[in-house]
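Protocol step 4 of 6: structure prediction from sequence.
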Amino acid sequence: MKWFMDIHLGIPGILSFCDAKSPIGSRIYGGHLHGIGGTGFTRFRVYGMYALVLLLGSSRGRFRDKLGTDRRVQAGDLIAVFPDVPHQYGPEAGDDWNEVFIAFEGAAFEGWAAHGLSPAQPVWALEPLSEWSPRFFELLTPATSKADACGIAAKIHHLIADALAAKSLRSDAPPWLESACQALAAGAAAPSLEETARMSGLGYETFRKAFKSATGESPVRYRSRMRVSQAKMLLLRTDLSLEAIATSLGYFDPFHFSKAFKKATGCCPSAFRRREASV
């Protein structure tokens, strides 16, 4: 608790949260780091969860990832970290670094990929900083019950929604991108890749290249990742059989579903369900 109070008094620190599991996701770490922070630049790091990092004060530094982003960052910039994207960020020589961050996980957060939360655009500005920073510090509030944990997760979702809305005001993303993402994330109702391209007003090859340029991944990989994300939610929130889940998401049969799920997550669907239920 002292650490929490110190953070709210402006003294840097990191909090490790032990919130109750929430069906809409859970925060894991958070904190305020001044004078230290970032990942350093000796190697790329894979975080294994989502994180939002807001730069404060007179911050300046650099962000890089293995998808090709390499740019200077400054106070008012938001850095979005993705679970499986190798990245590095922090101050360079002569820079000041001041950040507030929240790290979180849960299949529900993966649904934001269909609404603009993309590894292809991991950094954007949030203005005015005076209105955004209190919302981050509010997410460091202790949770003492499952209801509190759900409330915190809901605030993170709300923050993501507003941050993406702020990004869209100055985004150069193609106008068809969001509807294409939503179509590809529609499970068994998803149109074919060729039909999605036609709905976007493009030939398939043009669509494939433009989609990858805008999102950092191909339409095939995006659709596969969305299916696995949706499968996680169904496995956690329902008692549907593997066959029913496979059918609802457009897999050929439970065998193909299990194979794709294990390739993406490292464990089969039934093992994932047992593991998460035990937690």
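Step 5 (inspection) to follow. The longest strand covers residues 26-34.
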